[in-house]
Amino acid sequence: MDGSAYDVHPYVLGNYLDDYNSLSMLAHEMGHAMHSAYSNAKQPYPKADYAIFVAEVASTLNEALLAERMLERQRSRARQMFLLVAQLEGFRQTLFRQAMFAEFELVVYQRAERGEALTADTLNADYLEIVRRYYGHDERLVTVDTLYGVEWAAIPHFFYNFYVFQYVTGIVAATALAERIRDEGQPARERYIEHLLSAGRSDAPITLLQRAGVDLTTSTPYEVTMQAFTRAIERVEALI
Ligand SMILES: [Zn+2]
């Protein structure tokens, strides 16, 4: 999705394979496109381009709404399982794994601040400790081979300045906003369109999210997200 042609309209280019992943991709990219379309229409050019902190909220919110709608419509147990597991994989990859990356990133910066050398060996050891802790290696839930210690080297985001935590705050904000839209309906939907989709970077990202209906300075949206995660697991267990 490219929304940078301010006076024209957003462009979406995708490979559509007529399956659920393609549909979800389309919902995701159209979230970005609507964010750009509304912000370009309502904001002057210097304030139209939104911050990374809110960028993945619109896209992830669309994915969440799509998943809910699809689940409501499916009667087949296999299809319900597929959708729920896809949702759980989304939480694993975007919530837990990116939080894990962010924790590793913090450890690396702390080493640098203490004036320590950043060698491949120390980074491998730090990364392996964190992956094993997140995946329950010591509790014997998952065996994480030593080789995984080098995974950090393949993740380009570690060479940017604190990027990955925003995937976590993004999915948390999106999950909480999707719940409000589902529970409250029209007023929540209008608040979201006016104060987030149309707001570009007209204020601090955290303030825009507060006006749109989610306050990331409190623990509530994180709790709502963990409840959504737990609900999906319980539904899978019930289907099994
Ligand atoms: Zn995206």
Explain what the structure shows.
- This protein is mainly alpha-helical.
- 68% of the residues lie in helices and 0% in strands.
- The protein has helices at 20-42, 45-48, 52-73, 77-113, 120-135, 165-184, 186-197, 205-212, 220-239.
- Helix 3 (52-73) runs antiparallel to helix 4 (77-113) and helix 6 crosses helix 9.
- The radius of gyration is 20 Å and the shape is globular.
- The model has no long low-confidence stretch (mean pLDDT 95).
- The structure holds zinc ion.
- Zinc ion binds next to helix 1 and helix 3.
- Zinc ion is lined by residues 28, 32, 56, 59.
Topology:
Blueprint lengths: L19 H23 L2 H4 L3 H22 L3 H37 L6 H16 L29 H20 L1 H12 L7 H8 L7 H20 L1
The protein binds zinc ion (ZN).
The site of zinc ion has 4 residues, from helix 1 and helix 3.
User: What small molecules accompany the polymer chains?
Assistant: zinc ion
In percent, how helical is the residue content? Answer: 55-70%
H/I helix tally: 9
Rg over CA atoms: 20 Å
Task: Name the structural class.
Answer: mainly alpha
Order of helices and strands: HHHHHHHHH
Strand content: under 5%
How far apart, in Å, are the first and last alpha carbons?
38 Å
Low-confidence runs of at least 5 consecutive residues: none
Report mean pLDDT, rounded to a whole number. 95
Beta strand count: 0
Main sheet? Answer: none
3D shape: globular
